[in-house]
Amino acid sequence: MGVREILRKWGVTDFQVIDKKALSEITLGASILATGGGGDPEIGLLWAYNVVDQGKEILLIDPEAMPDEALAAIAGCLGAALVLTEKPPNGQELFWCYDSLRRYMGKSIEAVVPPEAGGVNTPVPMAVAGAVGIPVIDADGMGRAFPELQMTSFYIHGVSPSPTAAADEKGHVTICDASDALLTERIIRNAAMAYGGISWIAGYPMTGRQLKDTAILRSISMAWDLGKRVFNARRKHLDPIAEAINLTGGYRAFQGKIVDIDREFGAEKTKGFSLGRITVEGTDDFKGRTVVVDFQNEWLNLEIDGEVRCMPPDLICILDPATGEPIRTDIVRYGYRGTVLLIPAHERMRTERGIATFGPRYFGYDRDYIPVERLMESTSG
Amino acid sequence: MGVREILRKWGVTDFQVIDKKALSEITLGASILATGGGGDPEIGLLWAYNVVDQGKEILLIDPEAMPDEALAAIAGCLGAALVLTEKPPNGQELFWCYDSLRRYMGKSIEAVVPPEAGGVNTPVPMAVAGAVGIPVIDADGMGRAFPELQMTSFYIHGVSPSPTAAADEKGHVTICDASDALLTERIIRNAAMAYGGISWIAGYPMTGRQLKDTAILRSISMAWDLGKRVFNARRKHLDPIAEAINLTGGYRAFQGKIVDIDREFGAEKTKGFSLGRITVEGTDDFKGRTVVVDFQNEWLNLEIDGEVRCMPPDLICILDPATGEPIRTDIVRYGYRGTVLLIPAHERMRTERGIATFGPRYFGYDRDYIPVERLMESTSG
Q: Which of A110, B39, B97, B300 minimizes the number of CB atoms within 10 Å of its CB?
């Protein structure tokens, strides 16, 4: 059964065809929202372009169009984005994951939902949808990127990541089926490390009903819109950051030059993450001021002149002021110039269980979560 | 389908019923051959007795009786035996493993083969066979115990451990399906550590033909015979060690008192193994001489007065001289008295690939493998 048959079976007539232009726009928007993580968009795009070139259709549908009882699953990669650049996928990994899940569960997965907004984990699920012949749902599990498997709106609203299947480029497959989400994360991450630092995964099997109740809805459309605006700003020499702020309701919090990067090394210490901290010296309106940003795959916590101004799960996006291109934690270098954009996390990410799962204390900060809106108000006040 | 139906289908009329007495004899023999590893026989026996008490039949058949195309798999536990004593199984773990394998492979497993000779991994597969209603094959994968998943005659003769399923007592399941056996070992061991140090596993799915070509054949009968002889020696106040030597063709290499135990601690260092070294001071005929034995779950390497006298995969068994009861690496204490029995490994374990997989160099000793027969000849010479 192909994607058109599935949509016919579901009675869905309203969908969007994702062509290469759409892919590039969506991926740019998603990589901005990925808060410094999410990996190299070149890799995700290459994969997705290849699927389109093979004549496969990538069809995006609204979450409400998915039947309550149909089954969706995430598809994407897990591990250190830095490794991904050196260990490109062969394109079969996620087929192996889907096939393993299908065999293990004895049920077919009829839709793909991206796990997060990211340069890899947004276009790649689209590529998988096209290649497998199933639709991709206009939603994701974070509205941003996060480093660990359980850090999703799915999980905090009651959907288990299990069973999750993880494959590498040699066809090695690991399936974890555990009621304990942190255990699943640990076993799947161990597999990623055993595979050489990165793993391709499919998991979080969920019904359409569960997806509608737990996902960040229509976030692909939002990334698409963001990507279009930034491309447009580039063409017309407008300020891409202003476009991003208009759309997302974020704050232009800082502008400066990266003067220090303190990166952790060694698998024992980093557990397969890109870990560290950067220091940014203010320029323009921010001259004389200093920003420090910690990262674990994503930008996590931001301080301006020693005062916390953004905590997880709120979004810290550091963008090239001229192009709006995101600066990622895996490739950040001394001397890069960036504008810091802070965006409130989606309300579905800000529940009590959300803050416990990916708030400041989970990441080792001894402080309660305060929304970025309040932290930024106190700045101007 | 029950075990009798399977045997009828296969045309097998010759089998042995394993009752509680047989279980205790087989388990004693197997725990002697386990070379200090293999875990607490009380746990394995308790599980198997329970299955017999429920009226289930445990039927042992000769490997030649198994059809070439039928499917067998191992069942047992993987991890540090020390943990097993504190984290007893609930009896369901291996059903979950078998069921996961069946679903993943889309094929039923019709026979159980014990992975090794051990206090746990010999009686437990028998319990599983009884509970699932399939026969147990008179064979195993080592003729001794070894710490890692790939260290089997199956593997060195071309059978892959994958897919292997690993479960804990809470029903968490991990399946690894990798062509690379060392990767499978790593991922399954990581799962065991994530589960709290121990995991129950089913794996090495193989046909009857593969089993006949690769297993240590009739090793359960041999363990049974050994157990009977030692029980008999105890009853009749005979020397149990002499009985073991008569049957196995081993060497009485040393007798002494354990005067030092140097045990490694911490998961980072031990990777879930019982690791360390003991020193034994000679008594009786061996007065004034000293033995040092290294262990990694099992006794691995033995030196008498600084000269190597036994290397893996040959068997180092340290037995209580009065009862023939094995002294295990996980419970060895200062002051224990032991007789050291050295037994040549089965020829199927001594191939070039066998020595590469579990010979001295694999365990970090910078020396070529020399069979215990030659090492012991040079002692007397």
A: A110
Provide the chain B residues 307-366 that lie in CB contact (below 8 A) with chain A.
none
**Region at A313 (left for phi over 0; alpha for psi -120 to 50; beta for the rest):** alpha
Beta bridge partners of B292: B279, B303
Residue B172 φ/ψ, nearest 5 degrees: -70, 130
CA distance A258 to A241: 18
pLDDT digit string, tens, across residues B67-80: 999 999 999 999 87
- Count of C-beta atoms within a 10 Å radius of residue B369: 21
**Interface touch A177/B177, C-beta < 8 Å:** no
Q: What is the pLDDT of residues B290-326, one digit of tens each?
A: 999 999 989 999 999 999 999 999 999 999 999 999 9
Amino acid identity of residue B175, one-letter, is I
What's the Rg (C-alpha) of chain B? 20
Contact yes or no for A124/A88 (Cβ under 8 A) = no
Chain A contact set for B179 (CB, 8 A):
170-172
CA angle A338, A341, A329 (to 5 degrees): 55
**Nearest CA-CA partner of B76 in B93, B88, B101:** B93
Surface-to-core class of residue A317, CB atoms within 10 Å of its CB (0-12 exposed, 13-18 middle, 19+ buried): buried
Q: Which residue is associated with the tokens 């323009």? A: A284
B3-217 folds as CV3147-like fold (3.40.1610)
Residue A173 and residue B171: Cβ atoms within 8 Å?
no
DSSP structure string for B146-182 = -SSTT-SHHHHTT----SEEEE-TT--EEEEE-S-HH
Give me the sign of the Cα torsion angle A280, A284, A285, A289: positive
The interface predicted TM-score of the complex, written ipTM, equals 0.85
Is residue A380 less than 8 Å (CB to CB) from chain B? no
Q: Where are the domains of chain B?
A: 3-217, 239-380
* Chain B partners within 8 Å of A106 (Cβ): 103
The verdict on whether omega for the bond into residue A63 sits within 30 degrees of 0, i.e. cis, is no
On whether the CB atoms of residues A83 and A275 are closer than 8 A, the answer is no
Q: How many angstroms from the chain centroid is the CA of residue A340?
A: 18
Interface test with B, best of A101, A102, A162, A172 (most B CBs within 10 A): A172
Cα–Cα distance measured from residue B145 to residue B262, given in angstroms and rounded to the nearest whole number: 21
Q: What is the pLDDT of residues B321-352, one digit of tens each?
A: 999 999 999 889 999 999 999 999 999 999 99
Phi, psi of B201 (to 5 degrees): -130, 150
* A41 residue type, one letter: P
Per DSSP, the residues of B182-212 read HHHHHHHHHHHHHTTSEEEEEEEEEEHHHHH
CA distance B298 to B229: 23
User: Dihedrals φ, ψ of B303, to 5°?
Assistant: -120, 135
How many whole angstroms separate alpha carbon B96 and alpha carbon A331?
44
- On whether the CB atoms of residues A93 and A167 are closer than 8 A, the answer is yes
Please name which of B335, B338, B288, B331 lies closest in space to residue B316, comparing C-alpha atoms.
B338
Q: What is the CATH number of domain A239-380?
A: 2.40.390.10
Q: Identify any residues that bridge with B343 across adjacent strands, giving them in sequence order.
A: B315
